[in-house]
Design goal:
alpha+beta; Thiol Ester Dehydrase, Chain A; five-stranded antiparallel beta sheet; four-stranded antiparallel beta sheet; 6 helices; 25% helix; elongated
């Protein structure tokens, strides 16, 4: 397994106790964590908090960018659903602080297109009217999400869409300008979840949710080709 590299955005995206991140950082900075790797990607830590020592167990995802399982002996993190300050401190100790990343909750981007004969329903086959096609609205939303991620990718990486669930609520005639916006809601390692919206000059025309995953471009293409041999 690669060395864990969990970002602040990923920790924020998991369910966590109020102030657990801030308190966990303090414990880490104070050197209150001892840990050992029991198996590949599986760690046990002892976090010294005031008069008590809390046992913490963490299993990282295979790529080291997210959590697979976690627990703590304290009341907050005992059931494995919530990140307590002890788990946060242990993560930071194991990976020597937060992994640097431009992925942040709320990061946003907007792109636009003009409705013309190339992107109407009649042309793309999603209907027989001369209005902005639903598939083209979806494509514009995905483009906005790609733009959000454009400065966060390392060399050789790209992102692929794995889920989109949207409503197209109003029609836009030829000549309209369409604006699509994507905002990051959650970051789970390489999986990014967005709120996406679209609007024309008269107001909102669509909204929904979209998920993308950051992948290695070469490996992704190879896997796709191997699958279709």
């Amino acid at each position: 397994m690669q060395k864990p590299s969990i970002t602040l955005a990923t920790i924020q995206s998991h369910t966590h106790e109020v102030n657990s991140i801030k308190s966990g950082v303090k414990l880490y900075n104070a050197g209150k964590v001892e840990y050992e790797e029991q198996e590949d990607g599986i760690f046990y830590a002892r976090v010294h908090d005031k008069y008590d020592t809390r046992g913490v167990g963490i299993t990282f995802s295979k790529d080291g960018c997210d959590l697979k399982n976690h627990w703590c002996h304290c009341g907050v993190g005992s059931n494995g659903d919530c990140l307590c300050k002890h788990i946060v401190a242990a993560i930071l100790a194991i990976q020597d602080g937060f992994s640097e990343s431009k992925l942040t909750i709320g990061k946003t981007a907007t792109v636009s297109v003009t409705v013309d004969e190339s992107n109407i329903a009649k042309t793309v086959g999603s209907g027989n009217l001369s209005v902005f096609a639903t598939p083209m609205m979806i494509a514009l939303m995905e483009k906005a999400a790609c733009e959000v991620l454009s400065d966060t990718l390392e060399k050789g990486q790209t992102s692929v869409g794995v889920m989109i669930n949207v409503e197209h609520t109003a029609a836009s005639p030829v000549g309209s300008t369409i604006y699509a916006t994507a905002d990051i809601d959650y970051v789970f390692g390489r999986k990014i979840e967005f709120t996406v919206t679209a609007a024309d000059n008269s107001g909102e025309i669509g909204k929904g949710k979209h998920t993308r995953v950051i992948v290695d471009e070469g490996q992704f293409i190879k896997k796709a080709c191997d699958r279709n041999k």
